[in-house]
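Appendix B: a complete holo record

For completeness, this appendix reproduces one full record from the ligand-bound portion of the collection. The bound molecule is flavin mononucleotide. The inputs are the chain sequence and the ligand SMILES; the output is the full three-dimensional arrangement of the complex, encoded as structure tokens. No fields have been trimmed.
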Amino acid sequence: MRPRILVVYYSQTGQLRQILDSILSDINGKADIDYAVIEPVTPFPFPWSALQFFDAMPETVEHLPCVVKPIPSEILNKNYDLIILGYQPWFLNPSQPATGFLQSELAKILMGKPVVTVIGCRNMWLHAQEKVKGYLDGLGARLVGNIVLTDTNPNLVSTLTVIRWSFKGQKKASGLLPAAGVQDEDVAAANRFGKTIYQHFVDDNLIDLQRGLLSQGAVVLKPGLVILEQRGIKNFRIWSKYIRRKGGPGDPARASRVLAFKNLLIVAIFILSPISNLTALIKLAIKRHALLKDVEYFRQVDYEKGRI
Ligand SMILES: Cc1cc2nc3c(=O)[nH]c(=O)nc-3n(C[C@H](O)[C@H](O)[C@H](O)COP(=O)(O)O)c2cc1C
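The structure of the chain with flavin mononucleotide bound, as generated:
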């Protein structure tokens, strides 16, 4: 049977679309594949100014997202066998367009369906995926697979290149810095996942899909990330409330708080993060067993509320 697959995704720079195309490249002829693009009614800027970028944090963290455009009715009325949801984290949460979709009536298309999530990001996605799992759970969708592609350069390098990419629009390498984003060879090699999805579908064995994807390296996760995200999200929640007390998105009254958040984040990443990494390593040594259990959980597709 030819699977009918719907790919719903948002991608600001096109990176995630490239990843999705690569994943599906070898099964295009064997499946009926439709794409539905999630489009904000008011597009986010690209490249961003620093103020615009960090001003998007509070509403992203508080899950008060942008409104998204309707999806064509031919797609909404079609019965799909499998849905691939492609999204990216923003500030450790699903991007505003992704949350906008998941909170909208359009997300009913996911009800009762097996879903594979595909994430393309810098390197911090755990908390965002837990939020997406929560939305899928609420919709009665069944998460059967998760594929995560990250920028595998060291943390500080990927921070510098993502800044150059976001604020100047420059993805390609320059000076001592490599290209930003997920490495081209990792995007190209993602075609292996499509074959696995297809085979598990035709074998009627989607329940075992994540095991198959993991055996191909679909999720590479270091224990330190659990600690870093736990810390980060706590601080983001405090700052988002503090900034929103001065107004909504784009309100000039909150600009000074947004810029203070920006400065603090930069200090945290470049000055405090080596110290933070050290304390994370100590915590890792003390709590290794518990953290390894966390890693095992985050690699899977099960959902337990409040894990991070
Ligand atoms: C506002 C904003 C916040 C971001 N926050 C994160 C983050 O918390 N974790 C992460 O790994 N990447 C983060 N990124 C990088 C994105 O996840 C993504 O890789 C990049 O925006 C390109 O995606 P796209 O072109 O497919 O939309 C952020 C990007 C933006 C624009």
